[in-house]
């Protein structure tokens, strides 16, 4: 059932993003920033946690999940290191995902030769 819940939550997030792109003049970059910010805000006020518990990877893998991780890490950093933790906690909590994205992106660039469109 977790797979179904993840599919539902991830699908709803994607549908919301597609509707925003289709019905407004926002670019995908704007929607990306909107979703990260929304993940931070919902995570900070505690509304994203129930979505994560229900949807698991369906809620944490899409881009609002990155914002949620930033907010959660910043709050944990403040608890452990005071106000300075607000700046370092989010980066520490998301460092693994960011590093993986950079490493795998680099490997794909090395392994596959991009071709320009004619």
From TrEMBL:
The chain crosses the membrane at residues 6-22, 29-45, 83-112. The keyword Protease does not apply. Keywords: Membrane, Transmembrane, Transmembrane helix. Pfam families: SpoVAC_SpoVAEB. InterPro entries: Spore_V_AE, SpoVA. It comes from the Bacteria. This is Stage V sporulation protein AE. It comes from Alkaliphilus flagellatus. The gene is spoVAE.
């Amino acid at each position: 059932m977790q797979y179904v819940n993840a599919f539902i939550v991830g699908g709803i997030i994607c549908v919301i993003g597609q509707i925003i792109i289709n019905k407004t003049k926002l670019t995908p970059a704007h929607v990306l920033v909107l979703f990260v910010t929304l993940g931070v805000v919902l995570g900070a006020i505690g509304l994203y946690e129930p979505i994560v518990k229900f949807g698991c990877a369906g809620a944490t893998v899409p881009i609002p999940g990155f914002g949620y991780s930033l907010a959660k890490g910043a709050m944990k950093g403040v608890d452990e290191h005071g106000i300075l933790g607000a700046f370092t906690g989010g980066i520490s909590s998301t460092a693994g995902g960011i590093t993986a994205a950079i490493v795998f992106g680099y490997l794909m660039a090395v392994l596959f030769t991009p071709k320009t469109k004619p």
